Each structure stands twice: as structure tokens, then as C-alpha cells.
Give the backbone structure.
Amino acid sequence: MTISYFLDQLNYTVWANNRTLASIEALAPVDGKDQAIKLLSHVVAAQFIWYARVTGKPETALPVWGVMTTDEIRDRIPTIDALWKEYLQSKTDNDLQVLSFGYKNTLGNEYNNTLLEILTHFPMHSAYHRAQVATLVRQNGGVPAVTDYIQFAREQHKH
């Protein structure tokens, strides 16, 4: 794995999160819409929390299960993307293995993970919750966003 790989994953995450947000916004006001917003809020908050952990900043900026408005989500997606990109552009491929971070999770348990493990985790975590959102969107009469990485690659890489 390389820093450039994870920069691409960040681009994918922004692309997928924005598509997911649009699919939520297209839903009529139904019970599942609030749950979908909560899940996407969690995805964005988690990206801030992981950023805080690797940079040593306080994690209290966003509650892990707080609910944002769709406007707040839209505003925060590019903000966290820019923070992560700036951070990663200051790192080397070697840093992925050698940098390690101690932190407490949201339950107060202490852990230590490498930058590689953290950067591998959060795109997968985001995809997991976007899939939950897609299910809610479909169950509530909407059209789930296509957020497969291969679709991103087809559109963005244009090989």
C-alpha cells in the first residue's frame, strides 16, 4: 500500500459520500430518512475522529453518533477530505507501517494501530454504513446511489 493509494481512497470516499447524500435528499420525509441521515452523519464524524486520533487533536469536535443536517454533512465532507489530504501529503509510504497511534475508542477501551490499519479501516467502515443507507433508501421508495469503487474508477480514472 502507498500514500497515493490512500489518497485515491479518499477521493472515492468523497465521491461515494456525496452520492449517498444525494440519494437521501431525494427521499420524501419518511421514517427511514432520519435513520439514513444518522448513518451518514456517523460516517463523516468517524472520519473526523480518526483524523483527530492520528494528529493528536481533541476528538470532541463531532459526537460519533450525533445527527447532522444534510447541509452540515455536505459542508463537512470536503472539509475532512482536505484535512486528510493535507495530512497524507506530509507522509511517506514508509510512515504507513512505522507510525502508530494510541487512542481510546468511544467506549473508553485503549488501542494502538498503525497508520496503515487506520487508513484501511475507515474507507471500509464508510462503505459498510453507506450500504446500510442504500438499504434504507430502497426500503423507503428511493433509488440507492451506486457507490461501488469500480464505478468511481470508471468515472474518475477514465482508463
The chain has a mean pLDDT of 94. The first strand starts at residue 100 and ends at 104. Residues 3-156 form a domain with the Four Helix Bundle (Hemerythrin (Met), subunit A) fold (CATH 1.20.120.450). Strands lie at 100-104, 110-114.
